[in-house]
């Protein structure tokens, strides 16, 4: 169990999430990709904390990352609900107004 | 040694389950795969002696994935366990980007001369975190609280079908226009 092992696993999780976030068409699947990216970040922060500087204050950063994840979920689902209600769609390709 | 093997195995499970999210043929399976990935990472965090945060990740993510499964069923408008589907755009470019990012990160991880550990973890880590949160890091937690409240308000405001402007008009001055009037004697 080394820092490098944990960070490589975290990098793999982050990259898989990145693939999902930029390739998926369904809004909820894009959110799953983002979740997977944050999953990797959580593991990386936990490993860096344990292997480099195991002072309790570092745990606060991990709690902030988890809080950011809940905010992302809450607002993401609210936006998905609005999108579905207004346009009856669940695809990102049908919500490209800001890219024009 | 056994702990190291278990940690590595959990990492492989987390990564494979993460990959399964985008390769399985139904939304419901994708949700469960993501839940499995989170459970594996939560257990890894517990193995890194961060019991409080690890258990919190486990409990939170199981609930979150259950909510996500409900949203899948709501928005997909079909039985998500039975419908095989592949809805992607720019698959090759996405794979290339993700692969490049992964390669760059792994290269950085391997080549970085990581410093030695500074200090030792306190014996009662959970109690130490509790003290930290309620003492020197209180401001960080107190800052997160209004963000959470704003998220709740924003989420409800976005998800509401009818807002106060639908009820009272643009200037909020006309009598309430509700499909089902409330109050005594309705």
Topology (SSEs and partners):
The complex is a heterodimer of chains A (100) and B (186).
Chain A: H1 3-23, H2 27-52, H3 57-87
Chain B: H1 2-21, H2 27-47, H3 51-76, H4 91-111, H5 125-134, H6 138-159, H7 164-168
Write up what this structure looks like.
The complex is a heterodimer of chains A (100) and B (186). Chain A is mainly α and 100 residues long. Chain A has helices spanning 3-23, 27-52, 57-87. Chain A has a single domain (3-99), classed as Orthogonal Bundle (Helix Hairpins), CATH 1.10.287.3510. Chain A is 78% helix and 0% strand. The N and C termini of chain B lie far apart (72 Å). Chain B contains 7 helices and no strands. With 186 residues, chain B is an all-alpha fold. Chain B folds into 2 domains: 1-85; 125-177, no CATH class. At the A-B interface, helix 1, helix 2 and helix 3 of A face helix 1, helix 2, helix 3, helix 4 and helix 5 of B.
Question: Key terms for this structure?
Answer:
heterodimer, A: 100 residues, mainly alpha, Helix Hairpins, B: 186 residues, 7 helices, extended
Task: Sum this structure up briefly.
By secondary structure, chain A is mostly helical.
The portion of residues forming beta strands of chain A comes to under 5%
Number of DSSP helical runs of chain B: 7
User: Tell me about the biggest sheet of chain B?
Assistant: none
Oligomer status: heterodimer
CATH topology of chain A, by name, is Helix Hairpins
Number of strands of chain B: 0
Helix content of chain B: 55-70%
Mean pLDDT of chain A: 87
Q: What structural category characterises the helix and strand content of chain B?
A: mainly alpha
Helix share bin of chain A = over 70%
Q: What count of domains describes the coordinates of chain A?
A: 1
Helix/strand-derived category of chain A reads mainly alpha
Order of helices and strands of chain A: HHH
């Amino acid at each position: 169990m080394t820092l490098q092992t944990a960070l490589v696993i975290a990098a793999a999780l982050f990259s898989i999430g990145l693939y999902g976030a930029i390739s998926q068409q369904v809004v909820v699947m894009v959110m799953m990709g983002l979740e997977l990216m944050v999953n990797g970040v959580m593991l990386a922060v936990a490993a860096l904390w344990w292997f480099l500087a195991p002072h309790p204050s570092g745990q606060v950063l991990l709690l902030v990352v988890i809080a950011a994840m809940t905010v992302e979920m809450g607002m993401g689902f609210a936006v998905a609900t609005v999108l579905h209600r207004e346009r009856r769609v669940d695809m990102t390709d049908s919500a490209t107004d800001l890219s024009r | 040694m056994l702990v190291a093997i278990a940690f590595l195995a959990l990492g492989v499970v987390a990564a494979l389950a993460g990959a399964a999210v985008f390769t399985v043929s139904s939304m419901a399976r994708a949700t469960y795969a993501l839940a499995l990935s989170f459970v594996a990472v939560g257990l890894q965090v517990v193995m890194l002696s961060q019991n409080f945060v690890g258990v919190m990740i486990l409990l939170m993510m199981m609930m979150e994935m259950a909510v996500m499964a409900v949203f899948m069923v709501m928005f997909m408008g079909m039985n998500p366990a039975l419908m095989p589907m592949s809805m992607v755009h720019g698959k090759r470019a996405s794979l290339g980007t993700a692969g490049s990012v992964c390669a760059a990160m792994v290269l950085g991880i391997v080549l970085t001369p990581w410093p030695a550990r500074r200090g030792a973890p306190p014996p009662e880590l959970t109690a130490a975190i509790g003290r930290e949160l309620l003492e020197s890091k209180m401001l960080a937690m107190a800052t997160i609280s209004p963000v959470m409240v704003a998220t709740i308000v924003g989420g409800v405001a976005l998800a509401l079908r009818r807002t106060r402007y639908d009820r009272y008009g643009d200037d909020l001055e006309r009598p309430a226009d509700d499909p089902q009037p409330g109050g005594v004697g309705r």
